Amino acid sequence: MHITCLLAATDILVTKxxxxxxxxxxxxxxxxxxxxxxxxxxxxxxxxxxxxxxDYLFGQHIVANLPAGMIGLRNDTIMAGAESxxxxxxxxxxxxxxPHRLIDAGVLAANCVIRLQQIVSRELAPSETAVVTxxxxxxAAAENIIPNDLELGIDIRFVTSSTRDQLLKSIYRIINAExxxxxxxxxxxxxxxRRFPLTINxxxxxxxLKGGFAEHFGPMFNPEITVSTIAxxxxxxxxxxxxxxxxxxxxxxxxxxxxxxxxxxxPPVPMNxxxxxxxxxxxxxxxxxEALLIAALTCFRRPLVPSL
Length: 308
Prior knowledge:
It is a single chain. By secondary structure, the chain is α+β, with helices and mostly antiparallel strands. It has a domain of 116 residues: Alpha-Beta Plaits (2-Layer Sandwich). It is built from 9 helices and 12 strands. Strands 1-12-2-11 form a 4-stranded mixed beta sheet. α1 packs across α9. It starts with a helix and ends in an 8-residue tail after the last helix. The mean pLDDT is 92. Keywords: Hydrolase.
């Protein structure tokens, strides 16, 4: 969807609308967004030496919780920051028939997971947006074998830097305390696996685009969508320059419950990356192409100055 929309918008700007704009159009296809490594890899590869420094950057991403063809935008923070880690918990393994001779890393990890799930509900103010997810990763070789060690996968989402700091502080405190309470032979080991920055739209440019989007898309434009706890590495590409990022709805509203209502007769929408994820090709593609065109023409449409 992303590649097709950008290819089509570029083709139209160059072949059919070239007389409507002036400037330098830079088109980027970024890999590896899901792991948060693509944008940083492009920068490390010398991106800033290969292209002119842009005045504005625009990006879009399809989302399942908006109806197909709807554009979702908002001023300021539109997407959360995220951080993931692996935590290795040490126990003393052995045979399941003799648990008294062991330090069960599985029970220890289970206690950690229960406590970690209480951080948001018991340590943060109700007005703060945050998510903590803890997933025990596979460790046992057989049903009757208790392993020496076990790894937890931990993912956090936040919309302020202070919330991030508080979440991490609580995670370290809880896991270290549970390991000490279980008499673990070694302290836990934490390894950060990925980081995503907050996606914060430039106020002036966002307001500029809102006018064009509202005029073109009408009721299929939502100018104040809720801050998403999904994260994006696109802001790394900006390197201090103004940017705007928006969401492109892709789900069939007649087939799925996009609002997450418990009383709905429709099944819940299959979210991005799920096995049932099913973007509706049209009007999703058309809206994505048009949104990119509007963004480009809004900033490029300047009077040509004749050469003297």
